[in-house]
Model the fold of this input.
Amino acid sequence: MKLFSYWRSLATYRVRIALNLKGIAPDEVIDVNLHQGAQRAEAFRQINPMMALPALIEDDGNVLFESLAIIEYLDETHPNPPLLPKDPRARARVRGLAQLIACDTHPLIVPRVREYLADEFHADEAAVMKWGHHWHQAAMIALETHLAGSPQTGRYCQGDTITLADICLAGQAAGAAYFKCDIAPFPTIKRIVDTLMTNDAFARAHPLKQPGAPASP
Ligand SMILES: N[C@@H](CCC(=O)N[C@@H](CS)C(=O)NCC(=O)O)C(=O)O
Done:
């Protein structure tokens, strides 16, 4: 199994966590340098025409793309520990929290969007940062409201078991540091993320623990 990864990629962070939780170690981790635009190289475009990380290639050549799809596939093929609750309502809530992060927020702040704002609309670095901060902050407010207001929230996002929602929340928290969103005003998010980071599967997968990462975001 080959994982196409980059230290800064939050979507790949999600997949690294899931792989660690499932005890799966890719045979090879291939660095795709997003800062240098390597995601747009022809060889990678053949693997993921969306030109985005992560991608996972299985031993028989099957290509998996989109972090949520990859994680659900890993969960179906390696059921322990499960990353989605059995109860349909709990499952829907977990998927809802995960999608709020991975589908409604993260796509607004990825390199291709930030580069388009700069190149086509002449947004300077401060304006692009303000854009990222805005969307990140909006998601934090929505997440805190969901998590603090629900009796379903426990030690983790859904009860006391780690789920897909926690994987996405860890990525959201890592991105918050980059976009200068203080996590302290969001006590439920902070409590859950602090707990998650004591788990080796999360800590080891963190962007700043990957080859090529700087000492701080
Ligand atoms: N929805 C995708 C997101 C993929 C994505 O945008 N990944 C980012 C890194 S986190 C990327 O490779 N971006 C390249 C670019 O924007 O040019 C997923 O969850 O896998």
